[in-house]
Amino acid sequence: MEHRRIAVAGASGLIGSALVRSLAADGHEVVRLVRRSARGEDEVCWDPDGQYVDAAGLAGCDAVVNLAGAGVGDRRWTDAYKREIRDSRVLGTAALAEAAASLDTPPRVFVSGSAIGFYGDTGGRAVDEDAPPGDGFLPRLCVEWEEAAAPAREAGIRTVFARTGLVVARGGGAWGRLFPLFKAGLGGRLGSGAQYWSFIALHDEVAALRHLLDTEGLSGPVNLTAPEPLTNREITAAMGRVLRRPAPFAVPAPVLRAVLGEMAGDVLGSARVVPKRLLESGFSFAFPGIEDAVRAAL
Fold first, then answer.
1. pLDDT at 165 exceeding the cut of 60
2. Residue 192: domain span
């Protein structure tokens, strides 16, 4: 196995910390981007809001992975928090892409986070990477987020956008909120339950990111979702079976809107996203089904 030096932004997040553990376990040298002074050769100082990166710390990196950004589901979407969600992604990505492009020997690959929010509400229609962006805050955000990586692409660095779905994990994200509800017997379908959720097990998310790093010739958007999206009704029924907690009740749409505010549109919305390019490039899922993914998370 080839030893590589890989820089990771967002290394303390749900996906980033799992990726760092996986890379380190296989003997790769991981350099974390931190928002304070670097304390060793395995850290690089950056300030995404101020668009500053200590580019010298990236020297010798074969790859850069950018997973940084304020949590979409962490708080109500006030105008101020929506600006924070946007700036933390767009400004940080632009700074990292410019720093990578400025190096005498740039990294071979730049994997930048994105999301299936790019497609907006697709209803029951399945979409792959060829689909255009949808309407609303998240699609606009994802378009800007991906465009911010232009300096890396223009410098000839292979640039890949990991359009991630709903990550099935206990430690954070949307599923981190669902598990306690189901364990308490309070889980149930959201709204009509007919909306599609495109999920991916955390294990497969990390494996897919590593696949993007390793697969020469793969660039542009790649959907990181399980092969068969399911409706919210199907997913909540599966959660109930695995956790042995029946989920007979529905959370009415007006209640969700009262609790979640504008974000409810994205929870109640339907995203039937398929991983066409990931499968075509030879990736195989360890946990393709929802029950397997939920058990893996537990």
1. yes
2. 5-297
The CATH number covering residue 117 comes to 3.40.50.720
Per-residue pLDDT reduced to its tens digit, 253-264: 676 666 666 666
User: Tokens 């080839």 map to which residue?
Assistant: 2
Residues 6+ apart with CB under 8 A from 284: none
Residues 275, 258: Cα–Cα separation, whole Å: 33
Amino acid occupying residue 283: F
The whole-angstrom separation of Cα 20 and Cα 175 is: 21
Best CA proximity match to 196, nearest among 228, 238, 231 = 231
pLDDT at 265: 67
Burial (0-12, 13-18, 19+ Cβ within 10 Å), 159? buried
DSSP letter at 127 equals B
pLDDT value for 213:
98
Q: What angle do CA 165, 171, 173 make, to 5 degrees?
A: 35
Q: Tell me: the pLDDT tens digits for 87-137?
A: 999 999 999 999 999 999 999 999 999 999 999 999 999 999 999 999 999
- For the chain, the domain total comes to 1
Sign of CA dihedral 267, 226, 120, 271: negative
Higher confidence at residue 288 or residue 174? 288
Helix boundaries (H) for the chain:
14-25, 79-102, 137-147, 150-154, 173-183, 202-214, 232-242, 253-260, 264-268, 276-280, 290-297
Q: Which of 61, 174, 53, 164 is nearest to 113 (CA)?
A: 164
CA distances from 176 to 69, 179, 187 (A): 17, 6, 13
